[in-house]
C-alpha cells in the first residue's frame, strides 16, 4: 500500500508528530490533481531523515498541512558520486538531470568548456527536475545542484582523493569495465563533455591530472545525454552501489 502513495520532497526536519506546511504547488497538486482529502496519506522525505508516512490534516487551493506519523524507510547514503557536465539545450538538460538523479549522483555540477553552447544554466530548474525524479523513482536524496563553473577552475581546485572519470572519444578502444575494475574504492566523479567534444588543450589538461581516468564508451559517438546514462551506469555497476 505504502508504495502506491504519492511521494513528496520537503525541506523540514521530520519525526513522529511533526507538523509540516506544504508548498502551494504541492497543495495544488494533491488537492486539485490527485483529489486527496484530509485523512489521506502521503510519503515524505527530506534527504536526511529517511522516508515517512504522513497524514493530510488540511488542504485547500494553495495551502496544505501534514502530520508525520511513522518512518517507512531509514535514510540511505547512496554512492559518493559527483556528475559534471557541459550544459546542453534545455529539454535534453532536463532529461539529463532526471536520469543522473535516478542513477544516484550526489552532486550536479555544470562545467563550462570551450565548446559549450548553452552556457546559461537555470539551477532552479535543474533542482526541480532532480526533485521530481527523486519523488518518482523512490530514492531518498536529492543531489546538490551547484552553479556553473569553468572546467579549468574546477580542475585547479579539485580534491585529488576523488577519481574523475571522463568519457574520452579519443581513448583507445579498450574495455571501460577493465579500466574501471583496476581502480580502488574512493569518492568518484563522472565528466561528460560538450556536443563537439573537448578541444585539444582541454583534453591534454585532463590527461595530465593524476586523478583523471579516461574511458571509452565504445565505437559509436553518443549524444551528451545518452553518454551520461551510459557512463553513470558503467560506474555504478563496477565501482558504485550496483555491485
Automatic annotation (TrEMBL):
Cellular component annotations (GO), alphabetically ordered: cytoplasm
Domain spans labelled Ribosomal RNA small subunit methyltransferase E PUA-like: 25-68
Originating species: Methyloceanibacter superfactus
Record-linked InterPro entries: Alpha/beta_knot_MTases (IPR029028), PUA-like_sf (IPR015947), RsmE (IPR006700), RsmE_MTase_dom (IPR046886), RsmE_PUA-like (IPR046887), tRNA_m1G_MTases_N (IPR029026)
Protein name: Ribosomal RNA small subunit methyltransferase E
Matching SUPFAM superfamilies: alpha/beta knot, PUA domain-like
Function summary: Specifically methylates the N3 position of the uracil ring of uridine 1498 (m3U1498) in 16S rRNA. Acts on the fully assembled 30S ribosomal subunit.
Catalytic activity: uridine(1498) in 16S rRNA + S-adenosyl-L-methionine = N(3)-methyluridine(1498) in 16S rRNA + S-adenosyl-L-homocysteine + H(+)
Ribosomal RNA small subunit methyltransferase E methyltransferase domain span: 80-235
The protein's Enzyme Commission number: 2.1.1.193
Source species taxonomy: Bacteria, Pseudomonadati, Pseudomonadota, Alphaproteobacteria, Hyphomicrobiales
GO molecular function: rRNA (uridine-N3-)-methyltransferase activity
PANTHER family reported for this sequence: 16S RRNA (URACIL(1498)-N(3))-METHYLTRANSFERASE (PTHR30027:SF3), RIBOSOMAL RNA SMALL SUBUNIT METHYLTRANSFERASE E (PTHR30027)
Record-stated family: Belongs to the RNA methyltransferase RsmE family.
Cytoplasm in keyword set: yes
GO terms classed as biological process: rRNA base methylation
Compartments in which it is found: Cytoplasm
NCBIfam families xrefs: PRK11713.3-2 (NF008694), PRK11713.3-5 (NF008696), RsmE family RNA methyltransferase (TIGR00046)
Record keywords, A-Z: Cytoplasm, Methyltransferase, rRNA processing, S-adenosyl-L-methionine, Transferase
Domain of life: Bacteria
Amino acid at each position: 500500500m505504502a508504495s502506491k502513495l504519492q511521494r513528496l520532497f520537503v525541506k523540514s526536519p521530520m519525526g513522529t508528530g511533526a507538523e509540516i506546511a506544504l508548498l502551494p504547488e504541492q497543495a495544488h497538486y494533491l488537492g486539485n490533481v490527485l483529489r486527496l482529502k484530509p485523512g489521506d496519506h502521503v510519503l515524505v522525505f527530506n534527504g536526511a531523515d529517511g522516508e515517512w508516512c504522513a497524514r493530510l490534516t488540511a488542504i485547500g487551493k494553495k495551502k496544505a498541512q501534514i502530520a508525520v506519523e511513522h518512518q517507512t524507510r531509514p535514510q540511505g547514503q547512496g554512492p559518493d558520486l559527483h556528475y559534471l557536465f557541459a550544459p546542453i539545450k534545455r529539454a535534453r538538460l532536463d532529461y539529463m538531470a532526471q536520469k543522473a538523479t535516478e542513477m544516484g549522483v550526489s552532486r550536479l555540477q555544470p562545467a563550462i568548456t570551450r565548446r559549450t553552447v548553452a552556457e546559461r544554466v537555470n539551477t532552479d530548474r535543474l533542482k526541480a527536475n532532480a526533485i521530481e525524479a527523486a519523488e518518482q523513482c523512490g530514492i531518498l536524496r536529492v543531489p546538490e545542484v551547484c552553479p556553473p563553473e569553468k572546467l579549468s577552475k574546477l580542475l585547479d581546485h579539485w580534491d585529488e582523493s576523488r577519481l574523475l572519470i571522463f568519457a574520452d572519444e579519443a581513448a583507445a578502444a579498450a574495455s571501460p569495465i577493465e579500466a574501471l575494475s583496476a581502480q580502488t574504492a574512493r569518492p568518484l566523479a563522472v565528466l561528460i563533455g560538450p556536443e563537439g567534444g573537448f578541444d585539444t588543450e582541454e583534453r591534454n589538461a585532463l590527461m595530465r591530472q593524476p586523478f583523471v581516468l579516461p574511458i571509452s564508451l565504445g565505437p559509436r559517438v553518443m549524444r551528451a545525454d545518452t553518454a551520461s546514462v551510459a557512463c553513470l551506469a558503467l560506474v555504478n555497476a563496477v565501482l558504485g552501489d550496483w555491485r
